[in-house]
Amino acid sequence: MTLETVSEVKSHGGVQGVYRHASAATTTDMVFSLFLPPQPERGEPVPLLWYLSGLTCTHANVTEKGEFREACARAGIAFIAPDTSPRGPDVPDDPEGLWDFGQGAGFYLDATQQPWATHFNMRRYILDELPALVAQHFPADMTRQSITGHSMGGHGALTLALSSPGRFRSVSAFAPIVAPRQVPWGRKALRHYLGEGDAVWRAHDTVALIEDGARVDELLVDIGEADPFLEKELRPELLEDACADAGIPLTLRRQAGYDHSYYFISTFMADHVGWHAERLNR
Amino acid sequence: MTLETVSEVKSHGGVQGVYRHASAATTTDMVFSLFLPPQPERGEPVPLLWYLSGLTCTHANVTEKGEFREACARAGIAFIAPDTSPRGPDVPDDPEGLWDFGQGAGFYLDATQQPWATHFNMRRYILDELPALVAQHFPADMTRQSITGHSMGGHGALTLALSSPGRFRSVSAFAPIVAPRQVPWGRKALRHYLGEGDAVWRAHDTVALIEDGARVDELLVDIGEADPFLEKELRPELLEDACADAGIPLTLRRQAGYDHSYYFISTFMADHVGWHAERLNR
Predict the structure, then answer these.
(1) What pLDDT was estimated at residue B149?
(2) Does the first or last residue of chain B, that is N or C, have fewer Cβ atoms within 10 Å of its Cβ?
(3) CA–CA distance from A58 to each of A99, A124, A195 (Å)?
């Protein structure tokens, strides 16, 4: 598979790259960023931390504002940030013209309904196509992967990890959507991409996946108490209940005064990188 | 003086604010950002580190990409990032339509030539008007200020510190323009803002100020060896020569592989914050 280098810039001792490739999963070009820490110059493959972004974001938001490079360089971890959906003039977009669905809002699932199913296949893009590309082009140890994400990307990290046992050594999230079946952003996306039908929706809902028996070893989740989406869209109490019932050790940190922005994410990014590093380097 | 709060967001334990005010120096509205670390909640005024940005930038570039908050929160230092020039439809701009002069390129001097002199008075804005506003509205210890900056903002930090003895406890720079009299960006700006005349230009040129007797205790400067502007616009060797002749201790670090971007700046930002913190907290 061919990879086009958009840019490669030295930062924090490593290389922050941005790359473009033709995707079979989305039938569009896709752009992602990947930070490679200094260690690969010595020839050792490094573990890989996935970061899935939230609604409206591209790879660029976390790449510019995430403050992850210092921690990743120190821990010797590569950091990959994919886009949040296919994009382009031929890709359908929100019929309501809003920002919470369509381009920038792929919800990390494979759509089954048209006109979405042709392009909106972010689940297999993230789980299959992009890892194969990374393995081919970068010194990443694909036996050591972890995943995190923000908001819709927290939903992505949690649902992909829960539904792919053994694939990720650890999973964490910043202000995740944990029950899309029960909140407006999620219901809109699931209805369009998957059609009606709760059984189908449950496979893409963190709380339902846990209720239905999916497990991870443990979870780290940060939430800002001043997050304007907390009560209506995020509803961390539903994750707490599901984890308590399932016996999944959940570290849920309610951070006083923090909102939903990268000013919140960047504050706790080094904590998450360090937490994953412990589990990736065991 | 009235201050309008554009936004205040919690980050790294402190508050990242963006503020707008009517400026007498520029006769425009001006926007700046100020990060206040957690310490003032305990009532202690904190030292203030100025960061002057480079060509084309506003307060936003370093605020989003600078990775300074963790270090400032740890050291208990406030961080202020002004804009680089007056802006607006009534403010004249580069007659050539380029990005290296006019709006976004105030060069931290007070223009004497029209049409520039009405608005382009960034020197007195940074040295007089904005400090008075900060002292009025924030718990900053104005007896403990330091200054740094990038590219044109490195020029600003160095020239303001050299020409205001005792004002700043320490000064550093990232990839500064050190001899505007001798390089294209600088000559264009000095000619338009100040008119012809080397005697006038020397007062706004770091190397000339040092040659003419201005002194600071020491300097910390980082330069990227892969900076595309290194040889034509930055010319750090001229600063090395001037400091050697003047007996100013200069720590000039030539960082292999780094360019002119915020990927470079953010890599060494914590070093600079820590270096200033040592001198501010003595």
Answers:
(1) 98
(2) C
(3) 13, 18, 26
Q: What ipTM was assigned to the predicted interfaces of this complex? A: 0.94
A224, closest residue in chain B (CA to CA): B10
Active site residue B151: yes
Cα–Cα distance for residue pair A170/A93, rounded to 1 Å: 33
Q: What angle do CA B133, B77, A259 make, to 5 degrees?
A: 85
CA distance readout (Å), A242 to A106, A166, A246, A248, A255: 25, 20, 6, 8, 21
B58 vs B201: CA distance, rounded Å = 25
- Catalytic choice (A23, A151, A170, A172): A151
pLDDT for the residue A44: 84
- Minimal Cβ distance to B65: which of A65, A226, A257: A65
List of chain B residues whose C-beta atoms are within 8 Å of the C-beta of residue A270: 70
- Which CATH number fits the domain that encloses residue B76? 3.40.50.1820
A contact test, residue of B6, B7, B8, B10 with most A CBs within 10 A: B10
Q: Domains in chain A: how many in total?
A: 1
User: What distances in angstroms separate CA B159 from CA A220, B149, B165, one per listed residue?
Assistant: 48, 11, 11
Place of tokens 């961080």: B79
Q: Report the C-alpha gap between A216 and B107 in whole angstroms.
A: 55
Q: Indicate the average pLDDT of chain A.
A: 97
Per-residue pLDDT of A20-67, as tens digits, reads 999 999 999 999 999 999 976 667 899 999 999 999 999 999 999 999
- Phi then psi dihedrals of residue B21, to 5 deg: -155, 160
Active site residue A260: yes
pLDDT of residue B39: 77
> B260 an active-site residue?
yes
Yes or no, beta carbons of B266 and A11 under 8 Å apart: yes
CB contact under 8 A, B64 and A67: no
Find the domain containing A63 and state its range: 4-280
Q: E-assigned strands of B100-152?
A: 140-149
If you average pLDDT over every residue of chain B, what do you get?
A: 97
Residue where the block lists tokens 């009532």 = B43
